Amino acid sequence: RTVYLNGNYLPETEARVSIFDRGFLMADGVYEVVSVLDGKLLDFDGHMARLKRSLNELSMKNPLSDEEYLDAHRRLVRDNDITDGLLYLQVTRGNPGDRDFAFPPEDTQPTVVMFTQSKPGLADNAGAAKGIRVVTVEDQRWRRRDIKTVQLLFPSLAKMEAKARGVDDAWLVEDGFVTEGTSNNVYIIKDGKIITRELSSDILHGITRAAVLRYAREAQMAVEERSFTVAEAQAADEAFYTSASGFVTPVVEVDGARLGGGTPGPIATRLREIYLEEARKAAI
Ligand code: PMP
User: Fold this and answer.
1) Which H helix or E strand runs over 272?
2) Domains along the chain?
3) 35 lines ligand 1 (CB under 6 A)
4) Predicted confidence (pLDDT) per residue in 68-86, tens digit
5) Which of 184, 197, 199, 272 has most ligand 1 atoms within 8 Å of its beta carbon, as the pocket-test mutant?
6) Is residue 209 within 6 Å of ligand 1 at its C-beta?
7) 148 is known as an active-site residue
8) pTM of the shown model
9) Could you read off the pLDDT of 216-263 as tens digits, one per residue?
10) For residues 213 and 66, what is the distance between their CA atoms, to the nearest angstrom?
11) Is 94 within 8 Å of 104 (Cβ atoms)?
12) Containing H/E element for 81?
């Protein structure tokens, strides 16, 4: 694989980052994930807008121009022959040359890394056809989940707990209300209405979420942005999650309660079709 590191395109085995990099020592960095279908980038502008917001919230410089990000994405897709897959972009506060809680001097260059993952058939994965099963886990993350930081230890632990309990993912719960999945935004459908938590610093502002809610409203579907409880989720007609890598993926079981007979519901299935069709059309 060819990867990008600070302006250079290198074989992955030659890309090296300092042991003093703030990303490594303090999880002091942000990231984005863009999906690739048919060699084209989905929702690219939205992901770049969120990257800049995340950097800004952490007082980090934006190291590249929009054009440079786009060129690098396209070059990695081409050089790695990616038809369907994902592109990860990570920016850390760089290497101050030693360990210190205080931010490094202004002129410290951020570390910028990009790499691809090839995922043939990304848009027709088994989870989407069968629906996935989730368990709920107390949300123990920090309070700024609207910033897409590389601090992914808690979601990783929650994912492992879900696997240990024999299901696919965990839904995180705070004060009795579902926040989001380990790496996705979550939705329930009751009596034809799509319900998803409102935007705040409690959740990541999903780029796929924004697109899917727009398409749902354009298709005259009812949308309500509010928090919902685990009990409401268990009594829902359908459920699904959204993310750049999973698009719209049906959820058919929450803490052992089967939704809609345990198979993907019609609204989630329809939204997945609409999202994939529209996102492919708009891909660059
Ligand atoms: N919430 C969390 C915690 C996530 O990690 C992700 C995926 N990065 C999402 C939501 C979905 O965001 P997006 O649609 O932009 O991929």
Assistant:
1) helix 266-282
2) 2-120 (3.30.470.10), 126-282 (3.20.10.10)
3) no
4) 999 999 999 999 999 999 9
5) 184
6) yes
7) yes
8) 0.97
9) 999 999 999 999 999 999 999 999 999 999 999 999 999 999 998 999
10) 26
11) yes
12) none
The contacts of residue 226 (CB under 8 Å, 6+ apart) are: 195, 197, 198
Whether 208 lines ligand 1, by a CB cut-off of 6 Å, is yes
| Contact between 87 and 36 (Cβ < 8 Å) | yes
The tokens of 38 are what? 């048919």
**Rounded Cα–Cα distance for residues 103 and 94 (Å):** 10
Q: Is the CB of 54 under 6 A from ligand 1?
A: no
First CA to last CA distance, the chain: 22
Annotated active-site residue in 40, 148, 159, 193: 148
- The tokens for 88 are 């990860």
Q: Which atom of ligand 1 is nearest to the CA of 242?
A: 14
R_g of the chain, CA atoms, integer Å: 19
